[in-house]
Design a protein that fits this description.
three-stranded antiparallel sheet; 7 helices; about 10% strand; binds fe (ii) ion
Length: about 190
Amino acid sequence: MEFVNIDFQYSKEVTVINEEQFNAHMRLYEGYINKMNEIDKLLMEDTDLVQANSTYSKYRGIKRGETFALNGVILHELYFQNIGGPESNPDETVKKYLSRDFGSFEQWEKEFVATAKASRGWVVLAYDVRSKRFRNISLDAHDVGNIAFSTPILVLDMYEHAYFLQYADKKVDYINNFMKNIDWNIISDRM
Ligand SMILES: [Fe+2]
């Protein structure tokens, strides 16, 4: 299956990122789409399987790139989909689950923000199937830090490319504005 990028459109209602920041980020997202098509094509060809080696090999390079690029596609799509305007609020079901697993909705929010500050790549509110609860997980790269058996629910890009053009080093302003722009209808659907 060929990867085709989702044609996300910038909305003036969004107050967390401006159009210039959005467009730059969209070009990076499309880069991951292109790389996935390149990698899938390579995997169909002669990849020199007999030379596969964990120190260095062509196959290792493809395999490292595969999970990095695919998670790059998935996480960016979830991120752009869960950004709405400032009008949305969490419903009672969302609040019930987050209160169950974090003590209160407000406590979940504090911990999500702290996880964002502590992350170099992504912060993800995910459902951890093994322990049957929601967790805020910290990723230092697309393929570093994920829980193997979990479902992403809310995704925030903490790579500097996501905010630096607009916010420079004011990372906390970006995080706080993101928290006001979550599309809670999408979050309810994912739960
Ligand atoms: Fe990104």
